[in-house]
Amino acid sequence: MGAEVEVVSRVAPPRAPGKKRTSTTLLHLLQLDNPDGVFVFAAAAAANKLPPPEPEPEAESLIDKIASCCRVFAFADDDAAERADERDAKLERLEEVLAAVRSSGKNQPPGLDHLVMVALVKMFAANLFRTMPPPATCPSVLAEAADEEAPAASLLPSWPHLQAVYDVLLAVIAAADAKALRNHIDRPFLTSLLALFASEDPRERDRLKTAYHQLYAKLTPERAFMRRSMAATLLASVHECGGGVAELLEICGSIINGFAVPLKEEHRGFLLRVLLPLHRARWLHAYHRQLVYCVLQFVHKEPVLAGAVVEGILRRWPVTNCQKEVLLIDELEEIVDALDQRQFDALAAPICSRIARCATSCSSQVAERALYVWNNERFLEMASAGGAMERILPPFVASVEDNLERHWSKCVQQVTASVKALLLQVAPDLYDRCSADLAASRAEADARAAARDARWRRLEAAADANGLSGS
């Protein structure tokens, strides 16, 4: 019980008309002593804090069930401490907890008790957060062997329990309001959740992707932190083989889709400093589809970024990885589809020069994919408009003629012949002029090579005559 404290304060007499009120402070008023006026305050002792509220009987029973689910089973057959009936009992309790959480979302008002939320967060941490082993198989192992079968995914034996825990987590995110989530899910929890994307089980990564995305939608104050955390994880994957990049990029794609235009500098920096460096990784094929979607979202929102995107891709072009070359040609073609005529005219020279060089690749897959760019109606339409063909055709004519003369693959020669027929139909005069220029440049190169060989022969003859020969 708090004690009542009587504080005497002076009550100022009525001021005379026209007289200015004297300025006073609250401390001064409380220290004055006047029997005409009394202020009474009821003060409670600060040390006597209120005890935490006792949970309802139903909530207390639910908390006990949640606490019993904190025991983690290794699902090892040779572990004598684990029994199948105990595992089944835990799974049943998790299903009961899931049903209780889902029913709480239907209450009016919907929500979960504070103590229940505390117990749930502890249960999530005990079952989900763990140290991830190094990956047993790396996607880069098969990067240069496209004909080999991909290794089987590593499936966790404890997935039945993990699946139930993830179901409870998703139900909690759906049932709890944003304020309750902010009070119980902090940054260390989000960081530990993000680290689980390194799991080799695709089923866990898929559930984790859904949970992390829903948390991003509800935890508005933590969105910037979550974006920075995802960016750091993606950058680390450029140099270190690991899973979860595709799932993280799917989340990023949905986030990018909601960015307002004009883009913030932070968002442009994510494109230039995170997404473009991801093209450098040897295991690009493991997440290329999701990466292309993210990049194209930026290009659609701000087409002026297309120049920086093309430059970043060409700067990271592979030298010996044929599979990556095919993927990057696909990406360049999709970027071209997103451009208008003016933007294509500005980027036609670097894009087509690279594709023309790929058309003469020793890899038949790369050469055919580069030549098939001419089957794209949008590309052909923009290449034929204006003066773009004047810059595009010369490198392609050299590649076409070189393939017809020297390429080892009959399939590549057939596709090259089809492309030549198309180019002769679209721009016959320009093709003939480029062919003539190519023949003249080759003749000059042959003449220079012959003159160089003649000089060497004269030098060798003079050396022999003077006895300076190395033989």
From TrEMBL:
One of its GO terms (molecular function) is protein phosphatase activator activity. SUPFAM superfamilies: ARM repeat (SSF48371). InterPro entries: ARM-like, ARM-type_fold, PP2A_B56. GO terms for cellular component: protein phosphatase type 2A complex. Pfam families: B56. One of its GO terms (biological process) is meiotic sister chromatid cohesion. This is Serine/threonine protein phosphatase 2A regulatory subunit.
